[in-house]
């Protein structure tokens, strides 16, 4: 696919740890839903597998899957896991986002 996604090694490591604790495959599904303070919000879930039309990216044996509709909004993004004094969270660096909120969980186009 022309639109690529990147999963950083830090994010892959965290997903692998969560998946192991929940005895699930190390597959993170990123999707976009309407809502949030900027119009769209990211949703993260562990998935059992990829659907046939999903875009799939793999880092260190961990897969990131995104459906075609969400891919239109997050294509070219980098998914990272960051830890700071304020907490730990997955962060999406989305080149398509024209606006975002302070918490980083929603964006606008």
UniProtKB/TrEMBL annotation:
GO terms for biological process: iron-sulfur cluster assembly. GO terms for molecular function: 2 iron, 2 sulfur cluster binding; 4 iron, 4 sulfur cluster binding; iron ion binding. Residues 4-104 form the Core domain. This is Heme biosynthesis protein HemY. The lineage of its organism: Bacteria, Pseudomonadati, Pseudomonadota, Alphaproteobacteria, Sphingomonadales.
């Amino acid at each position: 696919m022309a639109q690529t996604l990147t999963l950083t090694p830090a994010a892959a490591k965290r997903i692998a740890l969560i998946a192991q604790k929940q005895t699930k495959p190390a597959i993170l599904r990123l999707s976009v839903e309407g809502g949030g303070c900027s119009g769209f919000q990211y949703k993260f879930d562990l998935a059992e597998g990829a659907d046939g039309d999903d875009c799939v990216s793999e880092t260190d044996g961990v897969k990131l899957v995104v459906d075609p509709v969400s891919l239109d909004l997050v294509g070219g993004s980098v998914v990272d896991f960051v830890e700071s004094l304020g907490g730990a969270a997955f962060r999406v660096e989305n080149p398509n986002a024209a606006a975002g909120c302070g918490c980083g969980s929603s964006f606008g186009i």
